[in-house]
Amino acid sequence: MKRSTIELAVGLFVVLGMLCVGYLTVKLGKMEWFGDNSYPLYANFRNVSGLKVGAYVEMAGVNIGKVDQIALAKEHNAATVRIKLKKEIAVSDDVIASVKTAGLIGDKFIKLSPGGSEKMLKPGDRITETESALDIEELVSKYVFGGV
């Protein structure tokens, strides 16, 4: 009788431990349990070198979303980036999206600079004003070979 109680306690402890590991995996992976609390916007850039899926999107230094997808738009010969913003964030239609670097050689992210328009973008709309990533290698090569 005593052995079965110990086995039951150990079994419950293992199940509880597995539930905790599963919960932490979902939380640390920043997955959503029920539905998505974000909406998509699109932007075309000439150059997104170094930008990765999962990079953060910020406005005024605050993280408001993430990069969801990066693809090549063949009709524009540009990179189309789909970002997902938190639903409570409203973005005007004259917002400027820029690819920036965190630090000197840090990760790339998208910075949104708000505009003054009263008209807001709807889910699935396109950001028209964009600034591509600054290519340090290109600048150095222009400087070294006298292109500046």
Description:
The chain is of the alpha/beta class and 148 residues long. Helices cover 24% and strands 34% of the residues. The longest helix is centred in the N-terminal third of the chain and has 27 residues. The radius of gyration is 22 Å and the shape is elongated. The protein starts with a helix and ends with a helix.
Number of helices: 2
Compute the gyration radius: what is it? 22 Å
Number of domains: 2
Main-sheet strand order equals 7-1-4-3-2-6-5-8
Quaternary structure annotation: single chain
Order of helices and strands: HEEEEEEEEH
Low-confidence residue ranges: none
Percent in strands: 25-35%
Report the biggest beta sheet as strand number plus sense, adding barrel if it closes: 8 strands, mixed
Tally of DSSP β-strands? 8
**Measured distance between first and last alpha carbons:** 85 Å
